[in-house]
Amino acid sequence: MSYTGQLKATLPDGSPMKGNIEIVVTSSRRGGYYGYGYYRNGYKELFRKRFKVPVNGVVDFIVPGSEIPSTVKLLSLKAKYKNKSLAYHDPKHWHSPSNSYISLERIITPLKVGSIAKVMFDFTTNTETKNIDFHYQIFCRGKLVAQGRKLHAVDYQPSMKTSKNSKNEEMFTSRGFIEFVVTQKMVPSCRLLLFHVRDDREIVADNMLIDVEDTLENKVDVRFAESIRKPGEPTRLIITAAPGSQVAVTAVDKSVHLLKGGNELTQDDAINVLSSQDVGPSRRYRRNLCGYQPHWVRWDASKAFKDSGIIYFSDLTVKCERPVNYYSYLHYRWKSGRARPLLASAKSRGPQATGRPIVTPKKKQETKSKPLNIRKEFPRHGSGQRKLSTSYREDGELKLRFLTR
């Protein structure tokens, strides 16, 4: 299955940078926590490509499924700028007892209202499955605006690559699509939830955020028939809007707007109000200094429903509990040198006194305070120089961060 992600490259002031970014994806066949330490010795490079940073500073990238072997347990993403690694991310696959997954293909360009959207997706299923009934639901600002279902015929061929899951089923990857009409209710963005139910009552799901062009339902246009008129001459004011619209018009002297403070109501203000009503996870980036998911993070199909803003009640297998392999975590601690020595047994320590121990206070050592070094001269940055920072180190280059799920 392919992997899609986003990388944001900005300057310290939040403005997008200009230039090229190189993204490197490596993999490991050995699973483990943190994706670091001794596991990184067995990594193999799968994908390397240079991208030109667009105007918004967000780079969309796709790692083809043909580049990712089925035996891969862990992916490691690295972003480089001028041969310097500035951002890291180790995504982990969602847990499924049957190794069944759905991966929606990201739509990069915003959809237009009135058009028919076609969303491609990859999914895994066993070789004995003939047909799969996919269900999709589209939510906007916490409301269900569209839904449907599609019966997909499984096109398994004996020449396809397969792998066995924990239930000893032969699994393979197939591809499908769904279509829906983009309506005004989906502005400015909507959340697509796609799922199907296996024969063993396990739910396989995925979701993603879809951007729609910022258009208002009732477009109002106000203009004068003539561009220039002299005082005392008649003129015409032409107003274009939907039938039955109420348009309020006021007239003030032009000098009133010379010192305006940007408090006029614009279309962007209306779109921002609609965007603030999204009930899904926040788009605000939460900084992770190490870039790796903790070992206790276990995502499954329930995350797709949660990210869509849904509270579900079902007797199906939506949340798949997976016990944490604590031994592997201790093994990682031992290999990385972070494990603490075991405490001695009670017999080897001898008799112990009960009650509160007597602690002798230690005298504070007097230290001489160092004189403050006050800087009085500061270099000026010319037009050709940029003072930048990174998410992980201050090296005067760039701030990079992965915006992946």
TrEMBL record:
Residues 102-259 form the Alpha-2-macroglobulin bait region domain. It holds the Pfam family A2M_BRD. Residues 363-380 have a biased composition (Basic and acidic residues). It comes from the Eukaryota. Residues 345-390 are annotated as: Disordered. This is C3 and PZP-like alpha-2-macroglobulin domain-containing protein 8.
